[in-house]
Amino acid sequence: MLLRGFRRGVDRFLDALDSEGVVLFQIVVYLHMIMGGLYCLFIARGVPQSLGEAMGPVIESVWLWLLCGMSICLIGKYLSSHPNKTRYFVYSTGLLLQLAGDICAFGGFMGYVVGTMQMTYWGKAVVAVFAFSALAWCALFLILRDVRRYIQAEKDIRR
To answer: What do you get for the CA distance between the two ends of the chain, in Å?
Structure first.
């Protein structure tokens, strides 16, 4: 019984990996960013000093909460992939939560880019700017996808 459940889980993972979708990668990136935001909020009590100086205390707090806000997207993924899609409000709420979470992701990624670019001396931190810029573009594309999926769901329900 336990082995069968494990095998089913492995099969689902491999199906997600082979699907050429973004869900698996989105979950990995968002979970790590959420953990980073929670770590900075509750354990480290802030961001690295150079980034904190560039952002300021208010923007720093907003940025950390944007990172934690990515969890909204993961909840939305669960709701919109729920087997009972006949309940439209569950499905549409899931899509809207995904949109909100992806907007948080975009804000979090761009916040890092803008905060780092404001520093007078980039030094070696410039490498992270390129990575976060790429993640921001990906989040923007996910926002566009979420809007299109929600519009399509609205059209389908009106038919």
So the answer is: 43
